[in-house]
Each structure stands twice: as C-alpha cells, then as structure tokens.
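Researcher: Structure prediction, please.
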Amino acid sequence: MADEISPSAAELNADARSAGLDRAALAAAIHAQGPEFQEAISSGHDHLFADMPVFISPVQLRKMYEVVSAVEQVTGLAGWQAAGDEGTSHAKGAFFGYDFHLNEQGVHLIEINTNAGGAFLNALLIASQRDTGLPGKEVAIEKLDLSFQEMFRNEWRLERGSAPLGHIAIVDEQPRAQYLYPEFLLAKDLFERAGYQAHIVDPAMLLAREDGLYFGYEKIDLVYNRLTDFLLQRHPVLLKAYAAGKVVLTPSPAHYARYADKRNLARLTDAQGLRSLGASEEDIATLQAGIPPAILVNEGMEEVLWRERKDLFFKPNSGYGGKGAYRGANLTKRVFAEILQGGYVAQRLAPPGERAVGAEDAGPVSLKYDVRCYAYDGNIQLVAARLYQGQTTNFRTPGGGFAPVRVVE
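Model: Predicted structure follows.
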C-alpha cells in the first residue's frame, strides 16, 4: 500500500475543521501563571488567542528568514543612518517584529516594528500546544524563556559592560489599560525569575535625577520600552535620561528610526539607492522580491496615485497597529487630499493569506492572517500569526487572535 501523502500547508489552511487548538491545554497554561495573570486575561480578552493554528511551507519560512537577514545587512551599512538614528545606543533593540503577508504570489514584508507586542504571549501559546499532536513543527528556538532573559542581559552588557543589572521597568502609558497588559505580567515574572527587581510603570511616574532615572526611591537601570511614542516626544523625562546615557532603553528611538519608520519601506525597495550605499546584489534582489514597492507620498504625485490607488496601501510614516492607514480602494477624495499633504508612504498592496475557521453554529468562515517573525539582532526567536477580519489586525474577531505557526513539509 502506498504511503499516505500528508496535506500541504495550503490544504490545511483551507480546511475549517483541521487541527484546532487544544483549548484545555491553553487554559491549563494560563492557570499555571497564577491569579493575577488569570484576572488580567479574563476581561475583554475573548479573542486574544485564535481557534486554529496557521500552516506555512518550509519555502515560505526560508524566504522570510532571507528577507530578515537582508534587512539586517542593509540597515547595518554605514550610509543607512536616518534622522533620529544618531548612534546613541549600542543596544540592538529587544523584540523586533517583521510582519509578513503570505499569498500565492510569495512572501511579502509589509512592515517592521521595533516594539512588537505578543512575544511572551505567543511563547505561552506555543508551549501549551507542544504535546497536543498538531501537524507540522513549531517555529521557535529552544528554551524561549532563557533566550528572552539573555536578550535583555545582552542589551545591558552592550551598554554597561560588567556592571550589575538590578532594576528593570516595563514602561507604557496607563499600562493596566493596555490590551496587552497580561503580557507585561509575563515579562515581569520572567525578569524576577532571572533575579532582577521588575516594575510595570507609567512613564509619568518616572523621575529624572542627577544620577539617573527613578521610580519612587528605586533607580531604574534598564527600561523595556513598550511606548508607541517612538521618538519619546511626549515623554521628555525618559527622553532626557536616554539621551544622557542615564538609563538603558530598549528598544530606543534610534532603533525605531533605523528600522521601523515607514519611510524605510521606500528605502528598502529602492534598488538604485541601495546600490549607492554598497548593498550586495543578492540582498537587493531579496528585498526587491520580498518587500512590496513603496514610495514617499507628495503632492506632485496626485494623478498617478489616484489612478493606481486600488493597488496601493497608504501608511503614515510614524503609524502603528493600522492607525491612520488606508487601503487605496476605500479612499475618499477628502482623505486622499490629506494624505497628499505628506507624512505617508504608498506601498503596493500585498493581500494577506487566509485561514478557514469552523464555527460551531454556522458554516466555515475565512479569516485573514499575517505572520510575525520576532527577532533579536537579526536572529528569529519565534514565528506567530494573527487571525482577523477587517482592514488590519485586531483582537475583536471571533475565532481570531494570536495563532501558532506550524511548518508543514
């Protein structure tokens, strides 16, 4: 009898009943984190974790790795330095997120984030499903917790050498009100298990003193930065301490300027500009194939942009989480006129992949998904997906949320 042929990633993604998550195993993993985490995740987080995993092929995974490597090579060139990237930090930047759309035309990097959320939650999700018999293989390095701890230790060493690291602050505005606050609790627990004092802090509670940055009476050595005020324009106390070298900040404004400002999408897809910087032809070819072309928007481009708008996605230079972003097909003349004033990039549309999800009381539905590669210093730590409906990712879709990624041969 011939050997049975395993389903492909595409076939598994198209099957609404294939390989659902083990919710009991996930619930047990959540329970193991203790009552504070359980309480934080119980309210308003019904769609934090998806019902299904997402399946990808080895070729898709390899191409994502190649794009991440090429970006790292190009942004490391001497001429790449951008405004705001003045080399004030020797740290590499914790938890970069490379977000991809995967479809029949290939693998497409749609943006880079330097304060990417979800790594801790996805590590928990991956661990909970490890022995549940899902098809394929997870995409995560071994001993993720230890790897995360070492990443922050290395950030400290790069800035302070052998000096002792004692106090870490996880910083975001109104942290308890943030949707990903449960993740802050996981980060705090990780730091404390590594032997550090850890605090979840609103930046308004930080004080600048002559000898450093303080939270109450405690001097903060390192800040794990989760703010979406990427250049710290609204947070002068933290900006001053960072600029004066009084605190190790990761990720920092320099990391944002070098990688995540949306204008970099235009630079990364400008073959001639990359050649002028000394980029290799191999890296240029990888970026050309793996990143949809992007251009800076200006008023002189009104006619061509309007004509081609249905094939474009417009993103604010300093945007995040889909805020202020528009699919060209949905643009009104009024919004288009505002976009033309500047501060936007127009990127060629690359549709996301789709995953069929079964509903118990209805027929299957097709959700969009994107794939995020969490990386440190160009090395991918884990790969996860987000399932959603709508223009951009969200956590309001039944059956949607963070989903484990499995590679199917």
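Model: Residues 9-263+353-407 form one domain.
Researcher: Thanks, that helps.
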